[in-house]
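Propose amino acids for all 105 sites.
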């Protein structure tokens, strides 16, 4: 016959073992969930970085397209010819106008 003490010891042993297994399973679930959340956050941050890089590349491409369009307006970029009928736009000052001599001297 099993005594009261031994019966209580077996009960405590089973409760402790069962509790430890449950805590282990819960810890595994929490660990897996934390890992999945971290993975999802990492992928989101990667997407944000890729979108920023794509937007920057689009801005660079648009600026390059504008620059090429400006060059095309100034002349034919591929052949190197310019529109000779177009007014000159440069930093050159016009020729100075000389005053006519006066008779008041």
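Proposal:
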């Amino acid at each position: 016959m099993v005594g009261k003490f031994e019966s209580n010891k077996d009960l405590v042993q089973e409760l402790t073992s069962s509790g430890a297994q449950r805590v282990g399973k819960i810890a595994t679930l929490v660990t897996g969930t934390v890992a999945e959340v971290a993975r999802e956050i990492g992928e989101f941050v990667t997407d944000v970085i890729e979108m920023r890089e794509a937007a920057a590349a689009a801005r660079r491409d648009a600026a390059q397209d504008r620059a090429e369009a400006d060059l095309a307006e100034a002349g034919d970029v591929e052949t190197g010819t310019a529109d000779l009928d177009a007014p000159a736009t440069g930093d050159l000052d016009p020729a100075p106008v000389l005053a006519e001599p006066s008779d008041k001297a």
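Residues 27 and 33 are 10 Å apart (CA to CA). The radius of gyration is 42 Å.
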